Amino acid sequence: MQTSDLDDDHLWRQLQQGSESAFKELFSRYFRRMITIAYYELKDVESSRDVVQEAFANLWEKRANLDCDANPKSYLITSVRNACSNLHRKRGSHDRYVRQVEPTEPVIQPRWMENKELGVSLELAFSSVPAASQHAVRMRYQHGFSCKEIARMNNISEGSVKNNISRGLRIIRETLGKLGR
Fold first, then answer.
1. Does the pTM exceed 0.90?
2. Does residue 11 contact residue 66 with C-beta atoms inside 8 Å?
């Protein structure tokens, strides 16, 4: 059986035993998603790539000591978010606010952002959504995480995640309706 046919749990166990092919498969499955998450935090493509590559390098180095029950996607998300936080601390809070809002080179965009007009309307609608709901909606629909995964990553209940998503989507629908979308 090829590593591409295995689920994450099997790949995780193989990685712990030193399987390079399992590592490569996890890398190919999650690299782009981790870049998107890092970019969401850092707003800088090059720094995002560096952070994600470092997270995967650390994963390989620590493979023998990994928690057997850990979820690979959650482990990587936590690693990337921690690395982003560390980078923010290292740069200082001033750099966070000085960075340009728009990237200097294209970033991996979700499919719904390919239509620029719709993307602008959605971003406008997102601006009226509370931060917690905005985060939950983005994690669910842009990054493809389940409610359970979002809850675990943010240390909140799954019900809170569902409420935040529901509230966010309702506000987005209302705003898009006002915009004539």
1. no
2. no
Distances (CA, A) of 132 to 1, 124, 128, 145, 153: 42, 17, 12, 15, 13
Residue 149, classed as helix, strand or coil, is helix
Report the domain count for the chain. Answer: 2
pLDDT in tens, 34-55: 888 888 888 778 888 899 999 9
What percent of the chain stands above pLDDT 70? 80
Q: For residues 108 and 35, is the Cβ–Cβ distance under 8 A?
A: yes
DSSP for 109-120, written as a single string = --GGGSSHHHHH
Rg of the chain over Cα atoms, rounded to whole angstroms, equals 18
Q: Which residues of 40-79 are buried (b: 16+ CB within 10 A; e: fewer)?
A: bbbbbbebbbebbeebbeebeeebeeeeeeebbbebbbeb
Query: Tokens 């952002």 map to which residue?
Result: 113
Q: How far apart are CA 166 and CA 67, in angstroms?
A: 33
The boundaries of the domain holding residue 144 are: 109-181
Give the domain CATH number at 38: 1.10.1740.10
Taking residue 173's Cβ as centre, other Cβ atoms within 10 Å add up to 12
